[in-house]
Amino acid sequence: MLVEKHKIIAENSGILSIAATKKLKEKNKKVVSVISGGNIDVLMISSMINKGLVRRDRIFSFSVNISDKPGELAKVVDLIAELGANVIKLEHNQFKNLSRFRDVEVQITVETNGTDHIQNLIETFEKKGYEIVKIKSKIN
What we know:
The protein is an alpha+beta fold. It is built from 5 helices and 4 strands, in the order αααβαββαβ. The longest helix is centred in the middle third of the chain and has 14 residues. It is elongated.
């Protein structure tokens, strides 16, 4: 949250005071939190950001089966674009699906605007006749 909203990078132990404010029972009380430390590994920052985005429903990963015909993948990608999501990863693998001669499993990871946006994606895919096979809660 600090990185996403305030562009502040701090060590895990340096942000405990922020986490503690979520446990306060009194509301509308002025509280000061000390944020300290910037000694953090770049890979750790990347991991924390990705986990935070998934937890806040800003990243959504799912699988969908599509017909194994030219143009079907383009329809799915166009639908995602129409709904205002951004594809950040897509795997189209003809050999993963057991019914290879009819369907292809496509694994897609998109950037979203949050929970309502994800729900809209799922509902729209279902209305268009696509079945979301798996919903994943992690970045692959």
